[in-house]
Specification:
Layout: H1 2-8, E1 13-19, H2 32-43, E2 47-53, H3 57-66, E3 71-75, H4 84-92, E4 96-100, H5 112-120, H6 125-136, H7 149-160, H8 165-175
Parallel strand pairs: 1-2, 2-3, 3-4
Helix pairs in contact: 5-6, 6-7
Length: 176
């Protein structure tokens, strides 16, 4: 860890997520040993805040019994919504939720409802999907990647777009 800090030219890492599971998603296994190692590094002053990635609600509870966390980063988007209850529980406790693959990942989100809302709002499906995430819960933080200025404009448009109750209800049917 000290070598990493030196390479980065930093005295401390602001946040480090413990990534669990595999490429197919979270795996039901204990995270205690690995998380306790991060807690030790935090106690040594090398890490400021701890988070989790690719985890199950049970693993979140296990980690929180060891030390406070500031964020959970899991796969979540309009079509893949298995973390709905977890997002709500984290929001109640002031813990951030960072969805990865917010636009569907390697298979971009496609839906008649998404296209209908985008058309009605004179927007794009990307902007609408991001707007839905931002309106889903106040603890959702988006890190949407981009490879072009056009995608960056869509991402910014999504942050500025306010969806109506009708739009939200229609979009909620995608993952329901």
């Amino acid at each position: 860890m000290e070598e990493n800090l030196e390479t980065l030219g930093l005295p401390v890492l602001d946040a480090v997520n413990l990534r669990m599971g595999d490429s197919s998603g979270p795996v039901a296994e204990s995270l205690a040993e690995a998380f306790e190692t991060l807690v030790e590094l935090q106690e040594q002053g090398m890490i400021r805040h701890l988070g989790l990635s690719n985890v199950l609600p049970e693993q979140v509870a296990e980690a929180r019994a060891i030390a406070p966390i500031v964020a959970v980063q899991n796969m979540y988007n309009l079509a893949f919504r298995s973390d709905d209850a977890l997002i709500d529980a984290l929001a109640r406790d002031g813990i951030a939720y960072v969805p990865f693959f917010p636009l569907g990942g390697f298979t971009p989100l496609q839906s008649e409802a998404l296209l209908a809302v985008a058309t009605r709002r004179d927007s794009t499906p990307t902007a609408v999907a991001l707007a839905w995430l931002l309106q889903r819960s106040p603890n959702i933080l988006l890190i949407s990647g981009t490879s072009s200025a056009e995608h960056l404009r869509e991402n910014v448009a999504g942050a500025a777009l306010v969806l109506s109750a009708e739009d939200l209800a229609e979009l909620d049917q995608i993952g329901g």
